[in-house]
Amino acid sequence: MTVRDYDDVPGTYVLDSRTYRKGYHLNMMLMSLNAADSRAKFAADEAGYLADYQLTDAQRDAVLERRYLDMLKLGANVYYAFKLVSHDRQPPQVMYGKMAQPEMSFEEFQQMMISGGRPIDGNRRIGETKGDGNNG
Amino acid sequence: MAKLIAGMGTSHVPGVGAAMDNGKTGEAYWQPLFEGFKPLREWHKNNVPDVNIVVFNDHATSYSLDNYSTFTIGVGDHFRPADEGWGRRQVPDVEGHPELAWHITESLMAEEFDMAVAASVDLDHGLTVPLSIAYDQPEKWPTAVIPLIVNVIQHPLPTAMRCYKLGQAIGRAIASFPEDISVGIWGTGGLSHQLGGERAGVVNPEFDKAFLDNLTQNPIANAEIPHTDFIREAGAEGIEMIMWNVMRGALNDDVKEIYRFYHIPVSATAYGAIILENS
Question: Using CA of residue B31, residue B268, residue A16, residue A29, what is the dihedral sign?
């Protein structure tokens, strides 16, 4: 598959043609939760609801178990995943914390942001150590 | 003739709308943000144009992997807030301005910007939150609104330069509209933030400050930023900042910075706002 010049940005999932194809059914399932009647059906029988979409077993299990980082690895985009955390009536920081590594609770993620957020230094390139980055 | 009076840039974090809709703006977490809105709202109170063009992106609400256009202009006369997963925001519907929207569309097409045209599209937080930031909680919005939707999610995206040039063409279109109306243009989204992945929560105040500084003095520098630099330096979702280039492109070369506000955090985002008046 085509290499992109952002592939060396650590912990980052871009919705490009590779993700698009891998995550198509997963993302469309997530987006279906925009509709109130779909949310009600999903809430009543999650596994039954997911069976109507052509998900891989791994994608299905990641959704059922709310493993958000695994969902991204399996092609979900964060804006689509947002629909699931909204369905669960949880603040998005719950999802962000579950994606973050090391994983964080809502409170831990919230506190990291209040303290100024995750620093960019050390997080620009895979293998970069703090202070390597150029700011240009 | 129509006159473009000013541009605003603002983040459009959905949590800001939720805080207002649920009466939480007095809480300690939100207090500094809403304090920072005060001068901005004061300016808006004294500078209400007939129409605002709001440049924003849809977030898997009305557009999806099934159907996505790069630049879409709303030509309808009425738009509703969208249900993006937690019910429609209880904010006023949006009145469009079909005459100006069609004029801009025709002008852009003649300049080889091939626009998608939407009459009916539900509007998500990308548009309704900036309205709430500017106008608080009125019974109806004080201006007509032309939604201008940019794809900043599903790559390939338009370049930062293309966004700037689109803005320049919008500026020319406004200037050639024969009615005597006043117009504002808003660029929304950003500033640095990354929501997804192991790096979630990354922000970059230095990058944001340079971008805000360049908006006034050196907008071409912002237009020349490659996508990968946005992703690397400002986060995968920070690339929304290219929509501010549309706003800036529409304004005169010489603008005056009226107000700037920057605050970390709003949810996982570095919040930024700026008001630029045409000189």
Answer: negative
* CA B163 – CA B140 distance, rounded (Å): 30
Q: Please, which residues 91-150 of chain B have a Cβ atom closer than 8 Å to chain A?
A: none
- Mark whether B125 is an active-site residue: yes
pLDDT band for position A131 (cuts 50, 70, 90): low
Q: What is the mean pLDDT of chain B?
A: 98
Domain range A17-88, CATH architecture: Orthogonal Bundle (1.10)
Q: A130 pLDDT exceeds 70?
A: no
pLDDT of the residue at A2? 83
CB contact B22 to A (< 8 Å): no
User: What is the number of domains present in chain B?
Assistant: 1
pTM of the model: 0.97
Beta carbons of A83 and B236 less than 8 Å apart: no
For residue B158, which of B68, B84, B256, B26 has the smallest C-alpha distance? B68
- Which of B44, B78, B125, B155 is labelled catalytic? B125
Chain A residue with minimal CA distance to B66? A28
Q: What residue spans define the domains of chain A?
A: 17-88, 90-126
Report the CATH number at residue B227: 3.40.830.10
Please state, in angstroms and as integers, the Cα–Cα distance from residue B198 to each residue in A101, A112, B15, B228, following that order.
5, 14, 22, 18
ipTM over 0.90: yes
| Residue of chain A whose Cα is closest to the Cα of B30 | A114
pLDDT tens digits, B228-264: 999 999 999 999 999 999 999 999 999 999 999 999 9
Among this protein's residues, is B193 annotated catalytic? Answer: yes
Q: For residue A134, what pLDDT is reported?
A: 43
Q: What pLDDT was estimated at residue A128?
A: 84
